[in-house]
Design brief:
Layout lengths: L10 H11 L8 H14 L3 E5 L2 H11 L7 E4 L6 H8 L3 E4 L11 H13 L6 E5 L8 H11 L2 E5 L7 E2 L2 E2 L8 E5 L12 E5 L2 H11 L3 E2 L16 E2 L10 H10 L3 H19 L13 E2 L5 E4 L2 H13 L15 H4 L9 H9 E4 L7 H16 L1
This protein binds pyridoxal-5'-phosphate.
Length: about 375
């Protein structure tokens, strides 16, 4: 089976992890900090904080923004469930904003309309999670302008978009948001097996996330509520978790990071090759938005909904590991029990009925890609 996504591990990566295994620190050592600093420098953010997953990173981002009971978090229904669940972990409510059918990203016009209504009902969100679907940035300037007008905070869920650019700048630099989150799950652009990262330019948010990542415990006298008892002393000043990344994972991430640019280029070249070779087929191909350079986590095509299942099955039968990203979050049983229903977000639902993610990763060979293309041709024209 040609997988839709796959990690790339070099001997250098393996050596970096083995070196950590032979070192003094398997966790809480120097390597994770080096990974954080390298990634912050790469994307142009002041601070970075590594976590054991992007899901944990989203949770501590919400905590740092003081999301809690009675508050609302809004996000896109076309995302992985974690982008919404982070609100529920904090006891807050979730609501969704329908997508722009061209980009599959949260639609700023619908966001504006929903904000105007919410203001009248005094139900404005505290946080909006902008998900960069498939690796292409949301319209962050528009979302940022709305955040200033309506007073909400913005988290970029850039799990798909490490290495992507918006207005010429790396996603993660935080010009238009408060916190950005990356994922290092093996299907994403670079991997630490499991892992995630928060990025911010705000020292206070960084400090809050740092506490939340590690039990709410500090050894920093300035954060303590009374004088230290001595050099052994630590104090718990808030309720935190253990969301730390191990040194093994940090070493893998640090070793993978220099290849980010090259891998995004390779993904882009493969995407262009799909564009070229699929344009004669009855498919809607990915739209390239202005000012965006996608990291190409996913290459999503859309087909007439009555043909989707047969096409999906034909591809799988011929060894093409296609997938569907995503089942709209509001259609999950857990969310339906909270009151969401079919028909709430028609663009998201239409998109879901027609989408297929084709294999895309740097190791995909031209021959494998040609096989994917010929199976598509056969199924759609044969
Ligand atoms: C993968 C992903 C996550 C979760 O990432 P983990 O590192 O697996 O926790 C969150 N949001 C989106 C959009 C993702 O694709």
């Amino acid at each position: 089976m040609i997988p839709y996504g796959k990690q790339q591990i070099s001997q250098q990566d393996i050596d970096a992890v083995v070196d950590v295994l032979k070192s003094d620190f398997l966790t809480q050592g120097p390597v994770v900090e080096r990974f954080e600093q390298a990634l912050a420098a790469k994307v142009g953010a002041h601070y970075a904080l590594a976590c054991n997953s992007a899901t944990s990173a989203l949770h501590i981002a919400c905590l740092a923004l003081d999301l809690g009971p009675g508050d609302w978090l809004w996000t896109s229904p076309i995302t992985f469930v974690a982008s919404a669940n982070c609100a529920l972990y904090c006891g807050a409510h979730v609501d969704f904003v329908d997508i722009d059918p061209a980009t599959f990203n949260l639609c700023p016009k619908q966001l504006e309309q929903k904000l105007i209504l919410a203001e009248q009902q005094q139900r404005l969100p505290k946080v909006v999670v902008a998900v960069h679907m498939s690796g292409q940035s949301c319209d962050m300037q528009a979302i940022h302008a709305l955040s200033l007008r309506f007073g909400f905070k913005v988290i970029e869920d850039a799990s798909h978009a490490i290495g992507a650019r918006y207005n010429g700048e790396m996603v993660g630099g935080g010009r238009y948001s408060d916190i950005t989150v990356f994922s290092f799950h093996p299907v994403k652009i670079i991997t630490t097996a499991e892992g995630g990262m928060t990025l911010t330019n705000d020292a206070e948010l960084q400090q809050k996330m740092h506490l939340a990542r590690s039990h709410g415990v500090t050894r920093d006298q300035q954060l303590m509520e009374c004088e230290s008892h001595g050099p052994w002393y630590y104090q718990q000043v808030s309720l935190g978790y253990n969301y730390r990344m191990t040194e093994l994972q940090g070493a893998l991430g640090l070793s993978q990071l220099p290849k980010l640019g090259q891998w995004v280029e390779q993904r882009d070249a493969l995407a262009q090759r799909y564009d070229e070779k699929l344009k004669h087929l009855p498919l809607i191909l990915p739209h390239r938005a202005d000012n965006c350079k996608s990291a190409w986590h996913l290459y999503v095509v859309q087909v007439a909904k009555e043909k989707r299942k047969a096409l999906f099955n034909a591809l799988r039968e011929k060894g093409v590991g296609v997938n569907v990203h995503y089942i709209p979050v509001h259609l999950q049983p857990y969310y339906q029990k909270m009151g969401f229903a079919v028909g709430n977000y028609p663009n998201a639902e239409r998109y879901y009925e027609s989408a297929i993610s084709l294999p895309l990763h740097p190791q995909l060979t031209d021959a494998q890609q040609d096989h994917v293309i010929s199976v598509l041709e056969e199924a759609l024209h044969g």
